[in-house]
Amino acid sequence: MPIRALVIDDDFAGRRNHYHRLAHGSNGESFLELRPATVPLQPDQIANLCKQVQVGLIDIFLDPKGDAEPLEIVPGVNVLTLIHEQNPRLPIFVVSSHWDSLNMPIYQELIRRKQVKGGFSLRLLEDTSECGRVRFELERAVKEAEGLAAISLNPNEDLLLLHLSDLQVGATWVAEKDAKAAGDRLVNEVFQALPTSISGNATAPHLLVVTGDVAERGEPAELRAGFGLLSKLRSRLEISREGCFVVPGNHDVSLALASSHLIDYSFGSPFAVEAEPRNPRTAATTRERGLDRFGLVPFQEACSAFTGRGDWEPRVDFEEETRSPGWFHSHALSALGISVIGINTVTRLGPENPASATVPQAVVNQLVSHLDAFQRHEPGRTDLVQLVLLHHSPWPGIGDRTLHASGGDYLLSQLERFGDCIVLFGHIHTPLTNVRTYNDRTHRQALYASPSTPSLPASDRPEDSLRGFQLITLQRESDRVVAAKVQQFEYSGYGFRVRDDARFRRDVHSGWVAQP
After folding, report:
1. CATH code that applies to domain 3-149
2. Which CATH class is domain 159-254+295-515?
3. Phi and psi of 110, rounded to 5°?
4. What is the pTM of this model?
């Protein structure tokens, strides 16, 4: 079926051939069903059309007289604002005959808005390959919007979130030989443990969050098995890919790549490679030439296939030491009252040195700059709950372990001003839920939650005997999150059962407050 596309262009008649080339392939198949707004452009017509389409193509300059601002059909009437009021999930692409020093800065500002997914030049559509690229971007944006539409809730309906961590799927994951059967059983156990509705059906979560350690040693086979298990669970619960969020853990770092700077390679005849251990004390001088910088690439590829997004797209820059991005931000769920922030706390030798987890200040500054820009362009969404995902706790002294992410105090001090935070992490394999001040200089409190591992106990990890996961219910009123309930599920020998039920409410002065 062709994608229904709204076209808002005051010169559609003169550019009809360009749009037609985009809408139809070389062999005559239809990719887009164009629904152009008639000229002169009228707000009522646009408001009606945007409810009937799947994507919007908007010319950057709509006022032929030149009196209005970009994307205004007349002074003071902005098309983006008009569409957002009628169809806030409609993906928008900005169109121009060409990009130059006048309209490119405008586009760079517009792309920061959540509804604007990209842009393209009509001139470049004369190239068949460029048409293919634009079609691909349009189709991806529509799929993402329709996937998120499956999470569409009534303004006062609760939002449910399933929180898993530390599956560590690998050679020592289970004490039995058939790991696939164990994984299938785990999926069934989690599904059967969820509360049921009056009809007897499981209350399916809307979101799936995994706070790291999908694999044990970061090997591709482990990651495929781990994300395969998560895919089965997602399908069983009917959670869309767009509703899944994953951050890396120290065990998700490829141990072979992460430790490559400790090895000398000598290349002889073709395909002959000899490796010798290197003194770790001298490894730092040659580390920048090693493969360790790509330690998270296998995780990134598996995660991207699972979520359908490039949250952890690797940055290939041979001049820089850091290879993986430090954060991602998704505001796709802002209509539901939340925003999702993922933080990478993993260092290179993650599996061997988990205590060196860190959140660099430069990474925090980049994130803060992005969030500032988001709030400038979305002034009506300043009361969002920030769902902050990490593998390591940003606070010291939580749980039995002292391991936490250095730099977490600076991260929390900056995030406090962007709204009340729910901080989800793992790593400690201990079920915990409470509130805590962002730092020593404030009285506002964040809500934090950490589950135990849901995987079967391994002989060499006795702390995993407390198997479990968390189900988090966000109570909403008029699309605003006002309270939260965190249920800790624990394995009892006959399946998972609720062990603890903690409730919290939002307070205008104190942030999150625990309730009796």
Report:
1. 3.40.50.2300
2. alpha beta
3. -65, -35
4. 0.71
